[in-house]
Amino acid sequence: MQFLKFKKFLNHLAEAVNPELVTLEEVRRHLGVDAAHAYGGYLAHVTAFCSGNTPEIPFCGVPVGTIKKHATGKGNASKSDMIAAAEKLFPDQTIEDDNQADALCLLNYTIKEII
User: Fold this and answer.
1) What is the DSSP string of the chain?
2) Where are the domains of the chain?
3) What would the CATH number be for the domain defined by 2-114?
4) What's the mean pLDDT when you consider all of the chain?
5) What's this model's pTM, rounded to 2 decimal places?
């Protein structure tokens, strides 16, 4: 059911913002088999979504260490380091947790290095 909800979310997002590019956090190490399977399922849905659109939406994965190094200067930055980096990069945002910080740092990387 989670993948059906994710597919619906992607379609809703595409209608709302008409994305020209999708970047995602490329996780190369998982703490368990279930996490690896879930990541693979989400990645498959993003790949199918981007490839199935007309025109195709380009997408790329950015390794976690690359995002951390871009944001903090250290490829092994802690969660608190990433939150501090996101607060510095986006001073007008209230950073609620490390997931939001990671997403904002990925956004900054995408703007500076990919677009």
Assistant:
1) -HHHHHHHHHHHHHHHH--S-EEEEE----SSHHHHHHHHHHHHHHHHHHHHSSSPPPEEEEEHHHHHHHHHS-TT--HHHHHHHHHHH-TTS---SHHHHHHHHHHHHIIIII-
2) 2-114
3) 3.30.420.10
4) 96
5) 0.90
